[in-house]
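Appendix B, record 7
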Amino acid sequence: MRIIVDDVLEFWISPAYEDAQSSGESKGRGEFYLSELLEWEKRGSAMRYLDPQGRLAWRATPSFLERLAEEEREAREDENDDDDNEDDD
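C-alpha cells (predicted):
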C-alpha cells in the first residue's frame, strides 16, 4: 500500500525513517510511515483526507502549519536580534 503524504509531512517523516533504517529497525517504509502518521494524527499534527483521485492521503493540520510558521518567525527574530547585538559591538 502506497502512503500518500504532503510535502510538509514528507519533510519531517522521511529523515526519521532514514534514521530508523540506519539504526537497524526492520519496518518497511509503508509500515513506518503509517505508524508515524497515526502518532502525528493523535498529536493533532496530521490528518487524513481523500485526494482528488479518491485515495486516502495525509497532510499537515492547520495547527501544525501555524506552529511551524510561528517557530520560523521566532527564529528570524532571534537572528535579527543577534545581528543587532553584533552591530552594538
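Remarks on this record: The longest strand covers residues 46-50. Helices lie at 7-22, 29-43, 62-88.
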